[in-house]
């Protein structure tokens, strides 16, 4: 599941991003309200965690603009502003939770999981491409009715490919989304994982779904492109 963290303080942001990653969440972290608002509106997240006092755009305005854009993504304020009127204001703007700094990470994690249970969103989906099915909530994959056993990273990789069906995904994007790391040209982790996933998904079937596009990246689609390689 994907979380957008909008926190301008470096140490706090790094601490939260690492903790959420260890808890199994893919977390994008930005340090200003304008960038955070753009990501929150244009991309798909399961939860937004944001501060109130942010450079370029404060959390109040960000949330107001998010709701006006029709985005119902759950939002948690994480801020040092502890006055009752601040909490009321945040909730009235459409926040789903409000946690005051300093905080215990265990409480933050419990609140995050509670919000995600209340707003299952994308995680309740079943996706399908051709005869390939992905049950996101139950973390199961099937092709032609046959169960495919996947590791956690393989599942995350397949989910990314299926959500972006027909779109060529560069290795840099895959590395950041699935492994939460910057792409290193000397690292073949993406290639190795993709090869293993392709073996599990495509072996034994006449139609290949996962394709390598030379010099560009990978794509999942039911029809092979002439520029694709095996």
Automatic annotation (TrEMBL):
Residues 124-222 bind DNA. One of its GO terms (cellular component) is protein-DNA complex. GO terms for biological process: regulation of DNA-templated transcription. Residues 124-222 form the OmpR/PhoB-type domain. Keywords: DNA-binding, Phosphoprotein, Transcription, Transcription regulation, Two-component regulatory system. GO terms for molecular function: phosphorelay response regulator activity; transcription cis-regulatory region binding. The modification 4-aspartylphosphate is found at residue 51. Residues 2-116 form the Response regulatory domain. CDD domains: REC_OmpR_CusR-like, trans_reg_C. This is Two-component system copper resistance phosphate regulon response regulator CusR. It comes from Tahibacter aquaticus.
